[in-house]
Write a structure and sequence with these properties.
The complex is a heterodimer of chains A (285) and B (175). Chain A is α/β, with parallel strands linked by helices. Chain A has two domains: 114 residues, 2-Layer Sandwich (Dihydrodipicolinate Reductase, domain 2); 123 residues, no CATH class. Chain A is built from eight helices and eleven strands. In chain A, a hairpin with a 2-residue loop joins strand 10 and strand 11. The longest helix of chain A has 20 residues. In chain B, strands 2-3-4-5-7 form a five-stranded mixed barrel. In chain B, helix 3 links the parallel strand 3 and strand 4. The chains are: A alpha/beta (285), B alpha/beta (175). Chains A and B meet through helix 3 of A and helix 5 of B.
Chain lengths: 285, 175
């Protein structure tokens, strides 16, 4: 067994939030700059130019790139040879969120009373047990202008993949200007209702420009990205060449009766990071 | 692209001249509030004593980050406007001149803009850090318990927006 102090995981989360609230994920920033350079629609180009200036200014001045510093989503892959010490994991994560959000916007509240928790806790924490003796963390500050545009569909097998593809494209078409396009699209295919939604969120951690290791999913990603960009929504919905910076799919076997499809929409300001904690300490990826 | 400079509160004649797609730099004062601020304001309207007088004013849909590093206001980009659609026709029918936000609006809103010579401006979503540089003053108006969703009045200089829906109901968004 390897002892890993939950406070080290908390430190990683605090550092990550402090950084990513101000720095757009590098592959995403690069894609926004590339979109600007090839945009011909003048209004969309103006919007992309403002976005690029904002990305640079936020990073250089260390200010939140967007006022919606989001709800914190953490995926923790915990090696089964790890023994967590130093306290309860969720408390450590939420403690880190509380501290890191002191200078950021507190956007989290009770869904019934709508009373704000005033410290942006709790985070949404997904834990899974994996092989090994380390803890791998993926963290995202998820804004809800884009989260609100997400959707899940429980298709029947007769509807099949063609309907799934149409619904994915239609979800982006209906979202139009609301999620601050150009967007990044995470897709879950298969599993159960909740597994499908979780995959669509996790897919958003993929680096823009990366290939899906599964050739059939890779082909699907290319086709969907092409169809979404052909919608012509463009930056901020002003019309233009780039509506999606990336489409990323995760799949899982599903039941003979169903084809679950989840579409999680992310804005052009991806704020995500990964780090690992092992016997040697904290390591950024 | 022509860049137009306008001062707030607006001269309605100036608003009439704007066309969807125009780039505008806004200067002057506007109210800032979003979902919870609208909800509470409308509760006050129902009692017959509105908590603010928005006639002649502009409302920017935004909930800022806390100010830091000597800022006057923290990051302050627009939030999605369509969540405020249900409040919008009433506000324009009772004197509101313009709104600033992001994203498409309902048919009812477009009709209200046309009926009243109002304009809807789109700020660039996600550009919160950049917009904070345009804010020269902030005044807390009401509902401080709502935190980021409280009603504030801000003064801005050269705040970049696009005319998203003009007073003729023409839209920059491709339908």
């Amino acid at each position: 067994m390897t002892n890993i102090d939950v406070n080290l995981i908390a430190e990683g989360i605090k550092k990550a939030i402090d950084r990513i609230s101000c720095e757009v994920e590098p592959s995403c920033a690069k894609a926004v700059f590339a979109a600007r350079d090839c945009e011909k629609n003048p209004t969309s180009r103006f919007a992309l130019d403002v976005m690029c200036k904002n990305i640079e200014y936020a990073r250089n001045a260390h200010l939140p790139v967007c006022q919606d510093t989001g709800m914190v989503v953490v995926f923790l892959s915990i090696g089964q040879d790890v023994r967590l010490t130093g306290g309860f994991l969720d408390d450590a994560v939420n403690g880190a969120v509380r501290e890191a959000f002191a200078p950021l916007r507190k956007s989290v509240l009770d869904p019934v009373s709508r009373v704000n928790t005033k410290d942006n806790t709790p985070a949404v924490i997904h834990t899974s047990i994996v092989k090994g003796d380390e803890v791998r963390a993926e963290i995202m500050l998820k804004g809800f202008g884009s989260e609100n545009m997400s959707a899940i569909y429980m298709l029947n097998p007769a509807q099949g993949l063609e309907t799934a593809k149409d619904l994915i494209v239609n979800t982006v078409a209906n979202a139009a200007s609301n999620p601050c396009p150009p967007v990044i699209i995470g897709v879950g295919l298969g599993g159960t209702f909740e597994k499908c939604a979780e995959m669509s969120k996790h897919a958003l951690f993929r680096e823009i420009g990366s290939k899906n290791p599964d050739p059939s999913l890779d082909a699907l990603e290319i086709e969907l990205k092409y169809r979404i960009n052909a919608l012509g929504i463009g930056a901020q919905g002003f019309g233009g060449a780039t509506t999606a910076l990336g489409v990323f799919i995760e799949s899982y076997p599903t039941h003979i009766s169903s084809l679950p499809v989840a579409v999680n929409v992310l804005c052009h300001c991806s704020r995500a990071a990964k780090f690992t904690v092992d016997a040697g300490g904290l390591r950024d990826e | 692209m022509n860049e137009i400079r306008l001062n707030m509160p607006f001269d309605k004649k100036e608003l009439k001249k704007l066309n969807a797609g125009d780039n505008v730099l806004l200067s002057g004062t506007m109210f800032v509030f979003r979902d919870a601020g609208h909800k509470r304001l409308f509760a006050s309207i129902e009692t017959g004593k509105p908590d603010i007088d928005f006639a002649g004013e502009t409302v920017y849909f935004m909930g800022p980050c806390p100010a830091q590093n000597g800022q006057i206001m923290g990051s302050c980009g627009p939030t999605t406007s369509c969540r405020m659609d249900k409040y919008t026709p009433y506000m324009f029918d009772h004197g509101l001149c313009a709104q600033v936000g992001k994203g498409k609006r309902s048919e009812e809103c477009v009709e209200a803009f046309k009926r009243n010579g109002g304009v809807y401006f789109a700020a660039i979503g996600g550009a919160g850090a950049l917009y904070s540089k345009c804010v020269t003053a902030v005044e807390e108006i009401c509902y401080p318990d709502l935190g980021t969703e409280a009603i504030r009045r801000i003064t801005v200089k050269d705040f970049p927006v696009v005319v998203a829906i003009d007073s003729n109901g023409k839209s920059v968004y491709n339908e």
